[in-house]
Amino acid sequence: MIAALFFGAVTGLGVYAFVRVFLRPRPGVAEALARISRGQRSMTTHTTTAYESGGALDRRARSAFASLSDRLEVLAADRGWELGQQRADLALMGRTRGTHLATKVATGFGLFLLAPFVWTMTTVAGAPLPTAIPAVAALAFAAFGFFLPDLALRSEAAARRRDFRRSVGVFLDLVAMNLAGGRGLPEALLAAASVGDHWSMVRIRQALANARLYGTTPWVALGDLGREIDVEELKELSGALVLAADDGAKIRSSLSARAATLRRRELTQAEGEEGEKSQSMLVAQMLISTAFLLFLAYPAVSKLLAA
């Protein structure tokens, strides 16, 4: 009786959530803007790569995933799902909310089907399991699969954010060098961002180029980029440039000092990570040595106990 009530409640909750998600509410401004953005993305020219021109099944799967992503993007905009910190992580990784939500749904659904598949295999093999076990396992796998992309996104974004912070130190050195060469601050910023094709430099270069198009200052664009991808160093740099934009000599020394501070911080962090890895290796060696000593002492101890 308890199991029947539990599964009935879970089923009813799932039906209610399904109806709430796909129920058409009153259209708002956010939905209209999301639909316009979706239409612009569909009209964007795109060159088909060798990977995308694979088999028909792959193309259909990618098309279905893209359609699901677009629908979830519109749904997220209409419902006002900001996703909190995940939005900054997605902006840093260059992904959309719809793609992330579609990945969560696809992963959860795939792991949901894993439990019935295993139950079918065990039944065919002659070792059937009670029906309640695969049902509970399917719900647990679905929940795990739904939140697994969040954990992966957080880990990938943290690694990429550390990489971006290293690039900010290099960018500051390049800006200081261009200022020493006699360039103005806006020209020095754009020239420093145009040196390499690393993805972080490309993001900074795009932000500076958009600032020219929109008629804003480069330091405001850098601050907006820092807030978008949650990089504190860019926000601090924007504040420093706003305060000292008219004094080239002082801003040059300030940028050099900030770059040196970032390098020391990265060096300290690298040393700390190496220390943690050394401690982990030491603990692993101690565990292996302890297991080997127990293996050697087991025959003697067993004979003493048997006597």
Automatic annotation (TrEMBL):
The keyword Nucleotide-binding does not apply. Its main location: membrane. It is found in: Cell membrane. Keywords: Cell membrane, Membrane, Transmembrane, Transmembrane helix. The chain crosses the membrane at residues 6-23, 101-119, 131-153, 282-301. Pfam families: T2SSF. It is a multi-pass membrane protein. Residues 171-296 form the Type II secretion system protein GspF domain. PANTHER family: INTEGRAL MEMBRANE PROTEIN-RELATED, PILUS ASSEMBLY PROTEIN. This is Type II secretion system protein. It comes from Nocardioides pocheonensis. The lineage of its organism: Bacteria, Bacillati, Actinomycetota, Actinomycetes, Propionibacteriales.
